Amino acid sequence: MKNFDTRLYFITDSTGFEEAEFLRRVEEALAGGATILQLREKNKSTMEYIGLAEKVHKLTRKYSVPLIIDDRIDVALAVGAEGVHLGKEDMPIATARRILGDDFIIGATAKTVPWALEAYEGGADYLGVGAIYPTTTKVKTVITSTETLADICKAVPIPVNAIGGLNKHNIDVLAGIPIAGICVVSAIMKAESPKTATIELKARAKELGIIR
Fold first, then answer.
1. Are 125 and 156 in contact (CB under 8 A)?
2. What is the pLDDT of residues 125-144, one digit of tens each?
3. SS (H, E, C) 147-177
4. CA dist list (Å): 143 to 22, 28, 101, 190, 201
């Protein structure tokens, strides 16, 4: 039975961190109130990805937070993760759904209404829409307008999260748009205190009425 909350969706970035420090930061974010966590590793070998995912999964289980693996269905299955997130160039959502079954969380990236509808009809459980702002991650980004974000929210009946360069100082642009939550990387990952950053970001989003 799927049960997930995307209000504060934390996406990791291990770049520049030793493993122990990376895991410490991940746990701080979880302790601060991250509601779902995506492990994103673009450059690790399969063995390295699985090894790190197993360690992160121990932490997410401790805080009863679903672990989503970026891109890699094989890694998600290998570590018993709760879900996978797929981009446009990854396995088609419908194919992934046939492989993973109905109880697995499948997220999808969407930047247009047709793209969002295709993902939803293929079996996606939630959407990540953006980038709202330019990002500092190594992931290629295309800016998505808040108008398009609002249109996507109206077009599909599944949770829609905004992503891309978001932090506590700029999320006010999302006020009034019926998103389910926000996705953040650097605002937490690179913070002096990831726990404090998570708490403050969540509080600001609630203050603006972006999340409940």
1. no
2. 999 999 999 987 756 677 99
3. HHHHHHHHHCCCCEEEECCCCCCCHHHHCCC
4. 28, 29, 32, 22, 22
Residue whose pair of structure tokens reads 């969407």 in the numeric block: 110
Cα angle at 180 between 174 and 181, to 5 degrees? 65
| Residue-wise pLDDT tens digits, 93-130 | 999 999 999 999 999 999 999 999 999 999 999 999 99
By C-alpha distance, which of 87, 55, 50, 56 is closest to 71?
87
